[in-house]
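Form 12-C: Joint structure prediction
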Amino acid sequence: MSTVKVVDAPLGLGPRVRGLLTRRASWIPVLAALGILIALLVAGQSYLGNFLTPRVLSSLLLDNAYLLILAVGMTFVILTGGIDLSVGAVLAFTAILGARLLSEGVPSVLVIPVMLIGGAVIGLLIGSLIQFFDVQPFIASLAGMFAARGLAFLVSLSSIKIEDPTILWLQTKLFYVEGWFLAPTGVIALLVVAAGALVLHFTRFGRTIYAIGGNEQSARLMGLPVVRTKLLAYVISGVCAGLAGVVFSAYQGAGYPLNGIGTELDTIAAVVIGGTLLTGGSGYVIGSMIGVFVYGTIKAAISFLGAEQSWTRITIGALLLIFVVVQRVIVARSSRR
Amino acid sequence: MKLRKLLTHRLVLPIAALVVLVLINTISRPTFLSITVRDGQLYGSLIDILRNSAPLMLVALGMTIVIATRGIDLSVGALMAVSGSVALTIIDGSGNPEDPGILLLAITAGVAVTFAFGLWNGFLVAVLGIQPIIATLVLMLAGRGIALLITGGFITTVTSAPYRFMSQGYVFGFPFAFYVSVVAVALVVLIERRTALGVLTEAVGINPEASRLAGVRSRGIIWGAYAASGLLAGLAGILYSSNIMAADANAAGQYIELDAILAVVLGGTSLMGGKFSIAGTVIGVFTIQTLKSTITFLGVPPAVSPLFLAMVVVIVVLVQSRRVRAWTTSAWRWGQRARTGTEAAS
Amino acid sequence: MTSDPDVPPIAALTGITIRFPGVLALDDVDFTLWPGEVHSLMGENGAGKSTLIKALTGVYPIDSGSIVVAGEQRVFSGTADAQAAGISTVYQEVNLCQNLSVGENVMLGHEVRRYGRIDWSATHAEAARHLADLGLNIDPRSSLVTHAIAIQQLVAISRAMVSDSRVLVLDEPTSSLDRGEVERLFSVIRGLRDSGVAILFVSHFLDQVFEISDRITVLRNGKLVGESLAADLTRGELVAKMLGRELAELESISEAASRVIDRTGDPVLAADGIGRRGMLEPADLDIYDGEVVGIAGLLGSGRTELARLLYGADHADSGRVTVRGRPVRLSSPRHAIDEHIAFSSEDRRAEGIIGDLTVAENIVLGIQARRGWFRKIGRAEQAVIVDEHIASLGVRPADPSALSRNLSGGNQQKVLLARWLATAPQLLILDEPTRGIDVGAKADIQRKVVELANQGLSVIFISSELEEVLRLAQRIVVMRDRRKIGELSSHDSTVDDVVDYIAHEGRERVS
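Section 2 - Result
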């Protein structure tokens, strides 16, 4: 019994290769998404001609800035193993609320924080239902979605035009560099992505998000602040939805209570296509960004083709299908070990 | 002891919620409960609720079975759009919209297509093992697009008296749609409870692996649940399109998956799967339909009605939550203790 | 080991009472832990061990009593409080995050930060240092799932040491480890003890408890039975304290081992080279009418895997199986059931009982599954089947409408046995049917197995307890390292022979 060696290396492959694979396994879906994006862009270029132009690529970011912000918030929630169905409705609510306040003469320096806080409050309520009353995330955020949609109509039943120069500046001010252009909304979206990535990777809060997604029970027994972290994840998603409301208002130049219907599904689809596992604990904000770009490219290509926009959802549905099947195969293979 | 057992029965809360809602309505508009007879047909708010709840009833029945297997079917609304589109496109193209043969063919085709989609959902979940939310999200996203493709991007409208009869017609004084609900509920109860399917479904929902090892054909049971859900959603889509006599791919069954899930949860079936109650779902459907009717009656713009639904969801889940139950029990105990304490002191 | 009266205890629990609805889980229990000792907490299932641990680690609030840690009165409102007070726990089912790396798991919540952001290289270096302290030289950046359970357990201990724990609670840490891994864990435990950490150790294995403990506290039915130094206690005394009665009940089971089995005809089941890559090397096994074949081997030796392949719970990728001389394909549990084979899994809760169904529904589930959903078992028929089996197995409470998740482990096991017996199998495969259940139920189940075999049923009996296997089986299949290494007749074998056989085979392979 003296020299019992604990063998803990599975068979096959060199330990170095295997180590690299297992260490980086969670990046594989992200790389796959990137591959799809590149393939889409290349295919778009070869079929449509002038597709890979600075102009199209620039508007890819600007047209989907709001979705990008929503996807970052959604990534936090999904990483904890939850889901947030409310984001589309919260976007609509904050946008119409902002438009209403602006139309009544409230200055934009006040309106924007109010919109963000509005999102945060709804997120906090959803998180509280989940955390303190054991309500399933699906149902709790469904209630949040209903509530926000109803509130949006309570604020106004019809569209309100935005004339505030600050808000409009966010979308109209364009910085040009050799045919490429960028508006402040795009900058905001990219900053949100960067902030999301940094928080998830370089803070204890971010690591706790992953730990909860991996095994919530364990995270609790490890003494990690599970309650606070989960609440905060939903608050972040709410704030992101509020910020998306700001960006969307600037993009549309108006608030409309029917905005963002089905956007939660687009967001979830983009996050999943970006390689985040819906069971939680595995995924990256960068992946979600790629997922949004995949979504945007498909949408752009379809409008380029002049085809029915209904094809967008069909294509996204099909892509989602391919992704979950592939993810499923990967998970099945790794669990068979 | 018996009273206590009765009070803790899981249908108590759903029934209480429905009764409270009916009471509020009756107080605020005394005509709520009144039913008038005209030409041998019954009219009134309650009759409207019975008629209008039919599509939701069909969808919620399917959803109950799917949820019992630990699943969820988000695609039902989109499938409603699909079946309506298929049926109306066939009727529209036939040139003879009154021919019962054509109508039967159109309805069968519409329902067959959604049944096939239900089988597809079931395949993804039961065979490939994909999470139900995601598996059905695929068709939820793509379904409406498919419906739009079928109608060529338009809202197909038809005029066909027999088709319209399904949602508007009366038989023996009651709306035809109500009979559809009754028959569907009866069939589901018969299939689930008269056979062992119900208990096997619950076993699979509670513990899939243990059920498999006990020899239960869980794959077939899960598959069947999604297929049934697809079929029922297809029927609901037919009823919906008959009501507006149009195939509106965007509006048909919008949010109905959420209403259906809500009805199931209101009826006391846990989203975690396992034990399910058809009676509870029926009560849940009526509760939601009554609530919608109340909201309309109160003059609230229909667009704001989600806010009320949200409040109902929150109240119901709070009442069902363990923590609130613990609070109320301890408050009750505390009250008892306080009472016995004062008695002892006096 | 110090029991020096001058050294104050690191943790002192006095008069701890915890009440659950309808149960007094702990009744006025005192428990004292000294620095630098390994203190074992013993008791049967339901004695209150895990409740006491959960009180100490802040999982459960206490209804009355006091917890003093390092001289300070404490009220824990969660595990984080207890950890802040220096109490860490490593549970049986390793509570780490499988999606993260080893280093992240060790350092979660204690990551090294610089300028407000996590410094990953410093964090991993720190993790590597803590791992090395326990003699673990593994890459902290490697994914946790790639390591064996034993290593994960040590990683969990490393994690506990990051927060400078003065009390380390080890709840059943050895239940899924093999002998060598236990040795390694014990040397780590001794090292920690010598550095002054107080270790609270819980295990079902008496040998291990006597090997590692300095002091032993025994609980029974939520009450403190006594505390004494391990050296002052004999095995018999300990068992007597735990059970509060003699072991006679178990001993009364007749010596089944020497029964003569007629092996002339076709065997009930014969497997020829059945195996699956990565799970089990091809193995042979045959079993005749009325025979009990035991499978002995450590956890992970392939004994469960063999049972699962025979039942079709996993697909075999090699070998042939014949039932009464007829070749069959067992690719799913359904096929096995059709061949009158029944299997009761080692994991009662996850793979056996359907918790939210009643006892009656659980019992008839096997028959119902076989009949198919369309032909429902009628109420009257169900009552007959259920009552018969509840009575013959002595299920408590004898209430068919009780929810099975509310039953004790032993009674759940009886319900599972009833489910299979109701299907009238010809071969019954029992994987660890007596694990973690009380002695009374254990005796009931053993007696039932003997009775069934006498009636002609064939049984494959898997258990970690070699005494049990030797008592019930006529023949013993010995497994090791995912392969069958041989067969013994239990008629002329002792526990030591079996242990030797396993060990001897190991030596032969090395040379």
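Section 3 - Comments
Residues 341-346 of chain B have pLDDT under 50 and may be disordered. Strands of chain B lie at 36-38, 41-43, 156-157, 170-171, 174-175, 246-247.
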